Structure formats: C-alpha cells, structure tokens
Records
---
Amino acid sequence: MNCCCCCCDSDRAEPEPEPPAGDPEPPRRCTKYRLTVESMRVTQIDDGFLGGDLETTWTFTVNGQVKTYVNENLDVGTHAIGETFFVDVPAETSKIELVVSGVEDDPVFDDPLPGFTHVWGQPDNWGVGAQSGSGSDSNITYTLNYSITCADDAATFSVSRDVLMEYGEEKAEQRGVKASRETQLSWAMSRLQRDDWELVQATDDRYVFKGYGTLPKRLTEKYG
C-alpha cells in the first residue's frame, strides 16, 4: 500500500502584507540664495565727440546690498564681473530684487546709463537658474548675465596664512602703497567677510572659514 503525503497551498503560511508606505516628505524649501553677477556683453558703444571706450561705474543692488563694478575701458565684447550676493528668503512671500544702474564718467558731466530691475518670488522659484537683463540707449547696448542658486548649506574651508598674505601683498602692489603684514592680512580677511565667509577657527598658520561660494578655494588655487 502506497502512502502519499501532499502539501496543499492552503497549508502554507500567507505572507504578511507590507505596511502602506507613508507620504514622502516634501522637499525642504531653500531659505538662502546666491545671486552672482557673472558678466556683461556689450554690443554697441558711443562716447560722442570724445570717442574711444566708455569709462563706467555700475551699481548692483540686491535686497539692499550694494556693490559696484568699475570699468574704465568698457568696449564691445564680454567683460567678466563675478560679484556675488547672498539673500535670505525666510517666507513664501519673500522676494529677490536685483536693481542695476550705471553712469558714464565724463570730464564735463556724467551720463546715466540704462539699467533695469528684476524681482523674483515664489511663483518664479525665486529665479533659480541662468538669467539676464539688458539696457540700451545712445551710449551703450548691453546684456548683463547673472545666475541664482540655492545656498542653504554653509561649507567650511581652511586657508593658510601664506595664501592670505600673498593676496594682501598683491593688493598693496595694486594700490601702490606700503602696508604692514598685519594690514595685508586684514585686507584678505575683509575680502572673505564681504563674501559672507565667517572666521570660525584660527591657528598660527591656518584659518578656517564657514560660508557660501568658492572664494576661499579660488584664493588657495591662485596663491597657494
């Protein structure tokens, strides 16, 4: 007599159902942005009876922060600028406002140059990405290129004292002055602080900064 033992599907343990997946966390909204004025592309200039290039001073204002760009030989072509602003955007109703104005410095009287104003808010994702604005009159036709990126996460960067001193020494040479080493170091520290880099630690030969952007890295690559 043959004996057969069979296993039925009903005897197998049923797998426990997986718990329902929770709702994914919404992405964290950026609360600090970096606006960098990158370059100016000039396609036409006219200095009137004086001829030649334009002697210009440009003013960039971002949410009350003011920086100037001086180009005493502005001609047709692309001119690098590289001015950076950091803007807090604490609420959904916060705005990022860029105001651009310029003046042509003439011996007799200064001529205002065409500017523009851009305002970015939540419906525009605060302008994140590559942007441009332009101006044109009888003196100049130009396009200003700038970019806006999220800058929420501060970074730390260590810079040697030698790098800071090299930067300060170059500035002294450019200004044609004799400055003490303490003054040269102060110029370098001030340059980093203007770009929102905070000194968090210092030793005899190294300084650690915390902030946003790439200025400490660029200084190290140039003077290290």
Note: The longest strand covers residues 32-45.
---
Amino acid sequence: MSAYDPWEIRLAWQAARQIRTCPPDHKLLAEAVGKELAAHLEICEFCRDFRKLGPVGEEMIPMGRIWQQEPISAASKAPEAGEVWSVKESLGGWGPKKVHYNSPSVLVLMAAGKPDEAVRVAQVYDDPRLMGAGDLLLGNGLFAETWNTYTLRESDLDHFILTISPELLQTILELEAEDFPSLDDHSPLKAFRRLELEVGAFFSIQAVSDLMSRHTATLRERLSERFPGEAAVIEMIRRKQPRITWPASPLPLMDALARARLPDDEVPLAASSPGRVLSLNVLHIHLEQGEMFLYSCIASISVWREQENGFLVGGRIQEKLGEEAELSARFELPDGAIVQGEGTFVDAETGYFRAFFPRLEAVGAEESELVLLVLTG
C-alpha cells in the first residue's frame, strides 16, 4: 500500500496531466490562437486561467506549472545503457485528445551501437507519489517505468541526466519481463499509467516511422539473400546435423525450423526450470562463413495475460544468444488456425522477449500451442 495519502496522489496526478499534456508557455501565451490551442483551452481549465492571467499568473495559481527538473548536464557523448536522458523538446507537439505531448526523460535500456539507430528505453517520471508495482527509483526522485518501454532514435536524446549502476539496470530489465497486478480502473495511478503509455507512443511512433524508412535488412532477409532457396537452408543444416527430424509435410522455412525436432539428448529438460516453460529452436547464423547451426533451448514465461484487443506473452530465453536476434512467435489453435505474433521483440544480450497476439483471448491461448523460433547471429 502507498505511503502517501489519497489526496497527495490525486494532486500528483493533476500535476502529471499538466506536465505531460499542457502546451509550453510560448505556445499557450501566443497572441494568435490556432485550432489546436483553441481545442485544448476548451478542455483545460488550468490553461484557460493561466492564459487569462499571463506570465504573472504562475505565482498566483497554487498548483503552479510544474515541469521536470533541468538536466544535470549536456553531453556530446553517445548514450549508453544505464543512462537517463531527456528527449528533445522539439519532438513534442499536438496530438490526439486535444493535448500537447511534452518530451519526457527516458532510461536507455539498450544502446544503438550505430549513429542515429534505434535505442530501447523505459520512460522516466519524477514524482515518487505516482510509483506503483513495476516502478523503480533511480535517484534524484526519478523512477523508471518498466511497464512502459519503447524504441527511440539515438538522435532523439538531448541531455544526459544521470547514470545508474549495472545491478540496478539488470533489475529493471528483469522487471520489464514481469507481469504486475492490475490497478483499479478508477484510481489516479491507473489514469497516470494510461497517460504515460500515450506519451511513450507519441514519441515512439515518430522514431519507428523514421527508422522503418531507413530500414536495414533483418537477419531473416539477409539469410534469404545469402541462401535464395529455402530448401538450401534445410539441406545445409541436414548435412551438418543429420539427426534432426524434420516435419513430414512441406512447410515454409520458418515453420519448418520451428517444428524441427532435435535428438532427445540435445534437448534441455523443461522440468529443470520452475514455472511455465517451453522448448524452442534457435538458428545461429554465421553469414560470413555461410554456416548455420540449429539447437534447442528453454524459455521461461513470466508474462501471460489477456489485454485490450489481444494476448501478451513475455519471458526470458535461457541461453546465450549472438550479437543480434529476432523472434518469430505464433499460437497454433486447435482448429488449425494460426495467430501470428506482432511487435515481437527479443533482447540478444539478456534473452528477454515479448510478443503480442491480436484478437486472441485467454481461453484461446490456454487451449493452443505457443511456438517460438529465434534467429541469432
């Protein structure tokens, strides 16, 4: 239970709405009122009052205009995992619901490695009164939202704020794969989390759209380029690993790799791991040498829940992967139908993964078989 009184949490939530969704002063006090500002003023009593009073009103309104603390320092260095950075203010802007999304701070979970490439981040907030399960204090009043992670570009990050310890970063990565108790739909904390997810989506969509336009070939695409015929891939593996049993009926390459059965003495025992676990195949690709190797490992499942418009699965692959990795995931339903995973993600360094299955309910998931395949290299 929170150590704060309910009125303190409500006050913090009211401040969070202003911090995240009220336009900055130069837009709010502009002489010309555009359609976006006019629409926002219709729904925001605070901004209406502030605009009437002008700059001096800031001292007269008890709530004040509360903004996140100033970054500790600017830095020309590239962001690294375990660092908290602010997101560029210029990326903020008008969005849905007649609000102005202001740039948050984020904790870098996985660095890009290449200039201006994707970085994976967890959103950060600075009022511990709004902390709940899945939030972790970082220092200076900041906490990381392990339930709100997404992709940005390295160039989206502006000012370096602080660095956390490797041990704390590891804890956050582990929490990211956990499932947390649901909150009361009418609680300020639930409303705060909905808002934070909307903020993250606003900035992530910008980044992902740009990254997709500068798309680099995936492991699967590079595999297809290196070995144009799907049969050639299976034949190469068959020559090196003749004890593998392949599906009797012809299947697309990814399905055949996922369904291939390795010898029993090469398959780890699921019983050796507690909780919900499953066995999956991993294809390790050495494209420069033109070689590949298929092996089996265990995945522990820590996220298994129905959510809006689908079903979410997450957990950790208990095997060291290569420098990069890609996940293919699907549910095979009893009637033979396939529900393909969307937005699949696997962290090559830690093995943590997630996959979302649209329009799949909990009952359907329990009655179906989850099939995973990892490509790594």
Note: The CA atoms of residues 254 and 373 lie 8 Å apart.
---
Amino acid sequence: MANSAFLAAMVLLVGGFLLLEQLTFLSRYKRVLLHDYLWVIAGFLTIVFVNVTALFYLVGRRVLLKDTGRKLAHVEKQLQTPDTIVRDLSERLAAEE
C-alpha cells in the first residue's frame, strides 16, 4: 500500500509540474484563485490521489500476486517431501504451531 501511495504521489507531483508549466498565464491571478478555490482544488487532488493509489494497488496485486496460489501449493507439496532442507523447515513450522 505504501508503494502505491508513493507512486500516486509521484504521478500527481509530475502532473502538477507539467500543468503549472502550461498554465503560466494564470500566475497573475494566483492569489484570487487560491483564495476562492483552494478547498475545491484540495478536494479534487485528494480524490484523484485516492483513485490513483487504488489503481496502482490493483495493478500491483494483479501483476505481482498473479500465481500466488499455485506457488503456495508448490511450496506445500515440497514441505511434504522427505528432502533434508525442506524437512528442517517443516519441523520448524510444526514447532511454531
């Protein structure tokens, strides 16, 4: 979740810099715009931040945890074999339970 929030913040920061570069003609009205529309801009940015964070989180879950069930089943099968390294791990897991 922290990585998703960090990526979302970076995307919004880069987008903000690109937007400010294109809207230099509004710099004369900065005080009026911020005074009248600060809460609207802050609310919009919050909503966009939450949505972009959710998007990155969803993509990360889909891409990084794609075959987790199959991988865990494979580890479970290995724990059932009489291999020495796996036996040590399964004994340690059994002792923790």
Note: The two ends are 29 Å apart (CA to CA).
---
Amino acid sequence: MKFTCERDVIIREISIAQEIISSRNALSILSNVLLEAGENTVLIRATDLKVGFETRIPADVAAAGSTTVFCDKFIGILRSLPAGDVEFEQGSDTKDPDAFVIRPVFKKIDFRLKSIAADKFPEIQMASDDQFFEFPQKDFIEMIGQTVFAVSDDETRYFMNGVYLENNEAKLVMVATDGRRLSYISKEVTGPLKEFTGVIVPPKVLNLVRKLASGEGAFSLAITDKNLFVHFDNQKLTSALIEGQFPNYRRVIPEQQQHSATVAKDELVEAIKRVSLLVEKSRRIYLTLSENTLVLSSEESDIGVAREEISCKYDGPDITMAVNFQYLTEPLRVITDEEVVMRFTEANKAVSLYSVPEREFFHIIMPMQLE
C-alpha cells in the first residue's frame, strides 16, 4: 500500500477517530485506526464497538491496500510534521513488511509504526439505503443542544443514560431526564419519516454529531432496533443504542400550571451566576416571587449569603421555591430568546421553563426541599 495526501486533511479525520477510541489501550485492535487506500481515496475507520466512524479523504494512491495503526501515536506523528504532502507506505521494508512508513514529501523525516492486519479490525454495522430518511442538520443539532445536558450520569439507571428519540405524528421528538429534571423538543418532518419505535441514544454519538456537522443541508438518518446511523458530508457515524425502557415522560409534563413569571434571560443568568458563588455542595438557591419582583438568594452558611433582586412580570401570590441552580442555568444557556417564562403551581411542584415566544421545546425542573 502506498498513498500521498495533505497533512492537514488527514489530521482532521484522524483526530475524530482518536476522540472515539481515546479510552482504549495500545494492546487492543480497537486502539487502532483502519486505513484503506484505493481509487484516489483513503477510507478511514474507527470504532470502540459502540460508536463507529467512517470517512473518505482524497489521496494520490500509488498502490492499493489496507492496514491498521495505533491511533494515538499516529496522530502524534502527524501533528509533529510540517504542513504539506505526506507519503504513507507499507510493505516496502523487506526486513519488516508490517512497518507503516510515514514521511513528508519535502523533508528527510522517516517514521515507522507497527501495524496490525486490517482483516482483524471489527466490522462496523451498516444500514440499507431504504432505511434512511432526510432531516435538516440545523434542526437535529438544535434538538441535541436542547436535551443532551439533561441526561443522567447514574449508571445504575442506565435507561436514563441517553436521549430518548421517537417519531410521533410526523414529528421527531427528543427527551432527556435524570429523574429531577426533563428537557423536551420536537420538530416537524417535512419529508417522508421512516417508522421506528422509540430508542435511547448515547450522548457520545450525539455530541460528535453536533461537533462535526456544519449545520448546513440534511443528515441521512436510519434507526434500527439496535443502532443509529447518521450520514452527512463525507462522514458516517454509527452508534449502538441503549437497551431498556425509557420512563413515561408524558406523565411528568404538567397539563396546566396556574402561575407564570416572565424575566429577561440574560439578567436571570447573570444573577444566578453571582448568587451561586456562595452556594456549596447542595447547589440550592431560593427563588422568591412577589409582584413584578424576583429575588434570588443562597443558603446562609459559614461562608456567607448572597441575595439579588431583579424585575419580572408576575402578579401571582408571594411564593418561595428552592431549585438546583445548575438545573436552571443549563437550559438557559441553550435558549436564544431574550425572555423566558417560568410556569408553576406550588412551591413543591414542577417548574416549567419556556422561551418567549414559545417554541418547540421546554424544560421541567423539580424543586428541592426548602429546608
């Protein structure tokens, strides 16, 4: 095998591969990236058996072939090289035919990496063309952003360790919860939507999609019983799904909430940031509402206490609620509108957070004990 390609082009793709397999050690084939040269392209593939990545880059291929090399050292070598074309070759060294040679075209630099035969690399799951449907990148990325932060990290409740994805009456729906909060978003599908039962998608692949995609054009998506497939540009991502029964999230969504307070989002974010400086491990802050006024305060402690008053639109009864400030801050970060509305009924019942004007998403926070 022998091919030449531009250093920056291959670095970009190998960096993605390294991100997928970064937790693996050097003794496993899963720590390697597969390279397959042919027809003026090089196929690059990586997997940790749960998430798979595949892409192709242009290259001048002198001899077709395939191999796998240790990804961590490979990316380190590539980053150390000067910009420009780099030549890659395997099989030219008679003493060590498995050596993968890396040399810049215009520099006398020569690296030789040990390799493992490509036939030992695991197969990545594939979906047939008729299982895919198109969905706008911009909408899918927004859906990820509005939900992925609410995923539970409690491994004993593994069925909450991902984002629930379902198709509901020509809409694509994403929901995430950790049992104390819930984030929901839906988007209409304008084209044909393939039928599938609700699935739980690991956040790792969703964060990769959000990081790698341009936001322009459409994703090709396929959902099977055990895998999610996302194709875009020249890249393909595959992920195993989380098995288990996702909680019935509809039971958590309040049908009606009697009171609401509208507040400037940025002003609320800044107030939370300041008040939370004196919050300790509990992450508890207090929200006290009275006519057109919202007071945020921290618990009194040995460190001290913080209190800030901001204006809002509210004409209900005086009420004090305790919430985890992180559960309030994270959804506020992904809401782009200037105002938000908090809806609630009682101090110990769910608080719903909506944008103003109301859009396709909302966030629900369960209050903490006042004492």
Note: The helical segments are 7-21, 71-80, 137-147, 203-212, 265-275, 325-334.
